[in-house]
Write a structure and sequence with these properties.
Its EC number is 2.7.8.26. By secondary structure, the protein is mostly helical. It has 12 helices and no strands. Helix 3 packs parallel to helix 10, helix 5 packs antiparallel against helix 6 and helix 8 runs antiparallel to helix 12.
Length: 247
């Protein structure tokens, strides 16, 4: 069951040609532990460009390009939609209508730009650090998946669709396994605390995004889940890099 769910997670969270069948999807959507489990191989692959020699800023640019080549830009689309919804005036219903609007507004441009710039700047710092610092990328990816699991397990969907498919069969008790499976990622840079701070930052970002969505949107949907993954990754990376540098 978990192996099938992992295939489904990789198919949903990356561009890997696996887990696109109905059995994998059904196993994935009812097994939140597959989120952080998928974070380990995805994070390891994402970190590969940081191991290559070259100017740190160039390596960082390659990292960002490779990251989205690996995971796709569907989740980044959620960042764009939430960016527009965040700046619009009105009630929750008005904001939800903006999420469905295909027009790209200023909020979307700013939100996506900040996320991409955040990834690039953190990767640039990591590229200039010892090779072992690349483990922060693995921790960040696992924590981003934990953040998404937080939304899935604690969120309530605003309408029937992708969001409800993931939230309806999961609850608070289902969050325990994802949290436990994330703990090894917190030890990756031991005795340095960078990976622990990275994991914590991603989890807190997931909870913060969930609370914002409840207040501003009345619940969660696929855009919120995708944006949570991207926001948690960039915040976690920044926290990890900063901690490595200072500690």
């Amino acid at each position: 069951m978990v192996a099938t769910a992992l295939r489904g997670a990789l198919g949903f969270l990356t561009r890997a040609p696996v887990g696109r069948d109905e059995a994998a999807w059904e196993a994935f959507r009812t097994t939140p532990v597959a989120f952080p489990l998928a974070g380990y191989p995805v994070g390891a692959l994402a970190a590969v460009p940081l191991l290559a020699p070259g100017p740190s800023l160039v390596v960082a640019a390659v990292f960002v390009a490779w990251c989205y080549a690996l995971t796709g830009i569907n989740h980044l689309d959620g960042v764009a939609d939430l960016g527009d919804a965040a700046v619009v005036h009105g009630d929750a219903e008005r904001r939800r209508s903006v999420l469905k609007d295909t027009t790209v507004g200023v909020g979307a441009v700013v939100a996506v730009s900040l996320v991409v710039l955040g990834l690039w700047s953190s990767a640039g710092e990591l590229a200039a650090l010892p090779t072992r610092a690349a483990l922060v990328v693995v921790a960040a990816e696992v924590s981003a998946k934990l953040a998404t699991a937080v939304v899935v397990c604690l969120g309530t969907a605003t309408h029937e669709g992708l969001g409800s498919a993931l939230t309806d069969d999961n609850g608070l008790r289902d969050l325990l396994s994802p949290v436990v499976l994330t703990l090894p990622a917190a030890t990756l840079t031991w005795p340095r605390p960078a990976s622990a701070v990275t994991v914590l930052a991603g989890g807190v970002t997931g909870l913060a995004t969930l609370l914002w969505a409840r207040r501003r949107l009345g619940g969660v949907n696929g855009d919120v889940m995708g944006a949570t993954n991207e926001l948690a990754r960039v915040v976690a990376l920044a926290a990890g890099v900063t901690t490595w540098t200072l500690c």
